[in-house]
Design goal:
Strand order of the largest sheet: 3-5-6-9-8-7
InterPro entries: DUF2855 (IPR021276)
Helix content: 25-40%
Radius of gyration: 21 Å
Protein name: DUF2855 family protein
Number of helices: 9
Distance between the termini: 25 Å
Order of helices and strands: EEEHHEEEEEEHEHEHEEHEEHHEHE
Largest sheet: 6 strands, antiparallel, barrel
Structural class: alpha/beta
CATH superfamily of the largest domain: Medium-chain alcohol dehydrogenases, catalytic domain
Number of domains: 2
Number of strands: 17
Shape: globular
Strand content: 25-35%
């Protein structure tokens, strides 16, 4: 169906979006969306088929102001309310761009909503981007929508795991690539906090494939058995066992974000900590994003920005070759996860909040991935 053949009936009669209070993330609301204004040139309306909900999305909320995550899909009340970005699949239901057809299925960053509108640009055979003014200055990586029919790695049976894992796996692959690129900063081993998080598991998986450095996972006592059962960590300890570790030359990858845990590890390893890499904020109840970590012994903790390493690798080896490496590795990781992580489906938009609150409180089952179908 061409753009001009798209019927006005495609405009949803009732659409909704899940929003969180930017200053108090536990407060949420489901707000109506209205698409009553005439669509302008290059406007594209998408219907969300499914999206994944993970601890990464909570991190987006915590760092929403400092890293710009609230700007991707602005609320009608942007001072108080925000729309968390999620990874999902959506279908084009109305298009004012001649190169984007109604019925196309896409993968990318989207709001926790039943529908959303973008301004399409940078259209290619493989993808197109949202070039809305609110995206100015944000990483173009997060503005791109992959056209499913052009993705040689797409498998329908992998969709749920793809949206659950692809974004975080790409980050993890790039972390390990960055460390390898820098000769592991002279370290002999990895120490990964919040070892039960899906990003941590992905990183441990990537490291294990290369078998370059042993990996120690740090997790809660409740999750030790699950983490150990995965087989991708060489050793699994609880947070209260950190001080018992030998002080070998170590890379810390901190997915927890806890200022208490970060200080404990820095003081224990001191100068034997060769690199301190900050990624996640799964322990957001104990964070202080304005904390001055320059006073900690050892290296100053540094936040890892995946798009920078991706851009470097793409420049060196070409974007196609780099993404082929990542996506080939992702297929292996999805197969690995199918044996250890099950999928819980949410088909009622009103039921999103209980799942969100469990993830926010750190009480979600680490062995279960949450996939939401906002249109039932």
């Amino acid at each position: 169906m061409t753009t001009d053949e798209a019927s006005h009936d495609a405009i949803p009669k009732s659409a909704t979006v899940f929003e969180v209070n930017k200053h108090s993330l536990q407060n949420t609301r489901v707000n109506p969306l209205a698409f009553t204004a005439p669509m302008a040139h290059n406007d594209v309306l998408l219907r969300v088929d499914k999206f994944a909900l993970t601890a990464n999305n909570i991190s987006y909320g915590i760092m929403g102001d400092s890293l710009g995550y609230w700007r991707f899909f602005p609320s009608t009340d942007p001072v108080h309310w925000g729309r968390l970005p999620v990874m999902g699949y959506a279908e084009v239901i109305k298009s004012k761009n001649d190169q984007i057809l109604v019925g196309e299925r896409v993968w990318g960053f989207m709001p926790m909503a039943s529908h959303f509108m973008i301004v399409a640009g940078n259209v290619s055979q493989n993808s197109f981007s949202d070039i809305s003014p609110c995206r100015e200055g944000l990483s173009p990586l997060y503005s791109r929508f992959d056209r499913v029919n052009a993705n040689p790695f797409y498998l329908p049976q992998n969709e749920d795991y793809d949206i659950l894992l692809r974004g975080l796996f790409t980050t993890s692959w790039l972390i390990n690539d960055y460390m390898s690129d820098n000769q592991y900063f002279g370290a002999e081993q990895y120490l990964i906090t919040s070892a039960s998080s899906k990003t941590s598991i992905a990183l441990a998986f990537c490291i294990k494939q290369q078998a370059q450095r042993p990996v120690i996972g740090v997790t809660s006592n409740e999750n030790k058995a699950f983490v150990a059962s995965l087989g991708c960590y060489d050793k699994v300890i609880s947070y209260d066992q950190v001080s018992q570790l030998d002080t070998a030359a170590t890379i810390l990858v901190d997915m927890a974000g806890s200022k208490t845990t970060l200080a404990l590890i820095h003081h224990h390893f001191s100068e034997q900590l060769k690199y301190s890499c900050r990624i996640g904020l799964t322990h957001h109840q104990d964070i202080d994003i304005n904390d001055n970590n320059t006073l900690l012994p050892g290296p100053v903790p540094s936040f890892f920005f995946a798009p920078s390493q991706l851009a470097k690798r793409s420049k060196e080896h070409g974007a196609t070759a780099t993404m082929t490496l990542i996506n080939t590795a992702l297929l292996g990781y999805i197969d690995f996860c199918k044996n250890s992580i099950s999928i819980a489906h949410i088909n009622d938009f009103e039921a999103i909040d209980p799942a969100y609150q469990a993830v926010l409180a750190g009480q979600a089952n680490a062995s279960v991935g949450i996939v939401v179908h906002p249109n039932g």
